[in-house]
Amino acid sequence: MGINSSSVKEDFVLVGFSDQPNLEKILFVVVLVSYLLTLVGNTVIILISSTDSKLRTPMYFFLTHLSLVDICFTTSIVPQLLWNLRGPAKTITALGCAVQLYVSLALGSTECILLAVMAFDRYAAVCKPLQYAAVMNPRLCQALAGVAWLSGVGNTLTQSTVTLWLPRCGHRWLHHFFCEVPSMIKLACVDIHANEVQLFIASLVLLLLPLALILMSYGHIVKAIIRIKSVQAWRKALGTCGSHLMVVSLFYGTITAVYIQPNSSYTHTYGKFISLFYTVVTPALNPLIYTLRNKDVKGALGRLFGRDKTANIHGIKKVAFQERIS
C-alpha cells in the first residue's frame, strides 16, 4: 500500500488514499491548487472587507470571519495531507494528530454556527429592511460572531478530549487522510456506542439545529420575495441571498453525511472523498462564489485595483511636474 512500516511507534498512520497511488498524484495537484485558491481568495475577501468603506456592513463582517475560518481550517489539514500524498510516509505524530483534531473540529463547528448567523443576517436584510441597521447593530454582530467561535471551542474541548482518551490498544492505522472524530473513535478497543451517541447529539446541536435555523430564515425570505412585485427587487433579493445559499448547500451537503452516520457503510467507503470536498474544495470555492455572484465584491475589487492604478498615474504626473519646474 506504499506505507512505511518502520514508522515511529507513537505515530498515527494516515492510510488516506494510499491504496490508489495513481490517484494520489492527481489529488496532490488538485489539493495544492485548491489550497492556493483558498489562501489567495479568502485573503482578498478579508482585505477588501476591511479596507473598503462600502463593505463595512454586517454581511461582510461575517464574511470576513468565514474567510478567516476557511483559511485556518484548511491550513490545519492540507499541509499534512500534501506531505503524505507526495511520498511513501503516511504518518503523523500523536501531538500533530491531537492538534489537528482539536483545531479542525473547532473551526468546522464554528463555520456551522457562522453560516446560520449569516442566514439570520440575510433574513433581517430582506424581511426587515427598514429596521435592518437597528437590528444588526455592531454590538449584536460581535456577539453573534463570538457565539460562533465559542461554540466551536466548546465543542472541540468536549469531543476531541473524550475521543483522545479512548483506549486504542495499539491501534494507530487511521483509514482517513486527517485526524477526525468519526474515524478516530473507530480505533478504540472498547465499546464506542456511548461515543457514537455523544457524536450524534453534538451533530444534532451543531449541524442540524443551525441547518434548521437556516431553512427557517430562507423560508421567511421566500415568503417575503413572493410578495415583492418588482422584478428589480426580486433580482436584488436573490442576489443578496444566492451566494450564501450556495455556500450552505456545498458545506452542509457533505459534512452531514460524515457526522450524522459516522459508522454507516456509505461513510466508511466514501467518507474520505466526502471529507476531501468540505475540507479542501468548498473553502476554495467560497471566495469564487461570493466574488462572481456579488456585485459589491466585484466593485470593491475594481476600486482596490483602480485606486492603485490612479495612484501610479498621479505619481508619474507628480514626478514629471517636478522635473519641469526643476
Question: In words, what does this structure look like?
Answer:
With 326 residues, this protein is mainly alpha-helical. The chain has 11 helices and 3 strands. Strands 2-1-3 form a 3-stranded mixed sheet. Helix content is 77%, strand content 2%. The model is unreliable at 1-8 and 308-326 (pLDDT under 50). The longest helix has 35 residues, at 193-227.
Regions with pLDDT < 50 over 5+ consecutive residues?
A: 1-8, 308-326
Going across the biggest sheet, name each strand in turn. 2-1-3
The proportion of residues in beta strands is under 5%
Q: What is the ordering of alpha helices and beta strands?
A: EHHHEHHHEHHHHH
Count of distinct strands:
3
What oligomeric state do the depicted chains represent? Answer: single chain
Features:
326 residues; mainly alpha; three-stranded mixed sheet; 11 helices; disordered N terminus; disordered C terminus
Short account of what is shown:
By secondary structure, this protein is an all-alpha fold. It is 77% helix and 2% strand.
